[in-house]
Amino acid sequence: MPLLDQLASLLGPSGLLTGSDMTGFESDWRGLYHGRAAAVLRPADTAQVAQAVRLCAAAGASIVPQGGNTSMVGGAAPDESGAQFVLSLSRMNRVRELDRADMSITLEAGMTLKAGQEAAEAAGLMLPLSINAEGSATIGGVLATNAGGNLTVRYGNARDLVLGLEVVLADGSVFEGLRRLRKDNTGYCLRQLFVGSEGTLGIITAAVLKLAPRPRQREVALCALPTAEAALALFGRFQQHDPGAVQAFEYMSGTGMALVNALIPGATLPLAEPAAHYVLVELATPREGGDLRAGLESVLEAAIEAEEVLDAVLAESEAQRLGLWMLREEHSEAQKRAGASVKNDVSVPVSRIPAFLEEATRVCEAMVPGIRVAPFGHIGDGNIHFNLVQPEGADPAGFLARDHALMDAVGAVVQRLDGSFSAEHGVGRLKPYMMPLWRGGAELEAMRAIKAALDPQHLLNPLVMLPRP
Ligand code: FAD
Ligand code: MLT
Ligand code: ZN
């Protein structure tokens, strides 16, 4: 029987999509990749995933795992061959278990991150991972990319939350690692190998994640700053005041904020004057009572006194808190509306961020007159989305034709400052060409050996992460 018929009989009518039903699965969020899939497979449980993978392996057919398809680097889009199968876990979206005593939750990989957060909240706890695509991004996707996001400064990246994993391997066997141990040094830590592997080593079908106490108090402020150095000085002040309380510390450039104001309906900057730099800080504590608000005010007063903060607005209600966060969360959408963007998801040691911003801006402005340099991101982690928006009115295709030149120029600055060209979004299909420069020699060879051992036929997401030998 042809492979497609075998898969159809395994998965049933709602488990296999073809033709126009595949729209939405074949292109990426940024609109950089437009592929064609052989079919979209939607298994209902781990046994069906394993069986589907086994059938594909026997036929030598390639699989592209896909979650919410929010990848910023084209990691979940099929190629144009029409021969790859997209494997979506959207039907596997249950909470398998929540254990209050162990502070853990076992989620199926197709559940959205937001649904996972809500399940934890319903139990009075918190799943401490938050990204601005959480309504669509899935547990499988955030683990496969080791997503970071807005809470990393306090709780770490996705990797830091993983206690156990269930993974279907490239031959269809199942790694049953849904353990919830806080300590377990039994051999290699295989689960961490799959976290951040971008669908190249196995299909994550479920995970046990750590939960945290739910914050009982939260305070948010948006601050206008004169310089990037002032952002770091402010971060230092908050960390010194109460390191455990800083839940998010996010940076936005004046250019990025202006785009949000201009292009996102309902977005309004609640400050008297626009500034060159902004920071959004969120403090939170699981304790009742206490002086969170007073602490926020006293740190800001001292920073204003020292002229590190020009102006600040504190949220007085939940609606205002969400309004301030919206100014940060809508940055990606506003930049999408402004035309073509070249995204550089970079990290440098936190102390070097001002030097990075200054040098990289100078280099890019010299390369493309009129370019809109609109950096923003998780400055508390040293992670800046150094996004470059096309000059107003320019031809988007012409601008994108220079993407490698711009990425390489920014990369050269990052490299001088001992940073990384791939901080949290992953390598995807967009950046494998950069791997030999950044992870060459023994490191890249070890990665290739791991891939060859776990996926000897190179069937799982073959265009992603590792450059073709
Ligand atoms: P997809 O995009 O579908 O897939 C991503 C990669 O994971 C692909 O390589 C895919 O093959 C693989 N994959 C997916 N599911 C599985 C699985 N079950 N098993 C194995 N491999 C799998 N990222 C951050 O880190 N921090 C942010 O703050 C952040 N903000 C974002 C904001 C916006 C508006 C958008 C659009 C994206 C943002 N991202 C961010 C990018 C980020 O990588 C994703 O949003 C998220 O991690 C991907 O989840 P997903 O389910 O959409 O995965
Ligand atoms: C975010 O933090 O909002 C995303 O990771 C960013 C992006 O658009 O580059
Ligand atoms: Zn981010």
UniProtKB/TrEMBL annotation:
Q: Which InterPro entries match?
A: FAD-bd_oxidored_4_C (IPR004113), FAD-bd_PCMH (IPR016166), FAD-bd_PCMH-like_sf (IPR036318), FAD-bd_PCMH_sub1 (IPR016167), FAD-bd_PCMH_sub2 (IPR016169), FAD-linked_Oxase-like_C (IPR016164), FAD-oxidored/transferase_4 (IPR051264), Oxid_FAD_bind_N (IPR006094)
* Pfam families cross-referenced by the UniProt entry: FAD-oxidase_C, FAD_binding_4
Keywords in alphabetical order, please: FAD, Flavoprotein
**Domain FAD-binding PCMH-type per the UniProt entry, residue ranges:** 33-214
UniProt-listed GO biological process terms? respiratory electron transport chain
Q: Which PROSITE patterns match?
A: FAD_PCMH
Q: Which domain of life is it from?
A: Bacteria
Q: Which residues form a coiled coil?
A: none
Q: Single GO molecular-function term? A: FAD binding
Family membership: Belongs to the FAD-binding oxidoreductase/transferase type 4 family.
**Per its record, how is this protein called by name?**
FAD-binding oxidoreductase
Q: What's the source species for this entry?
A: Endobacter medicaginis
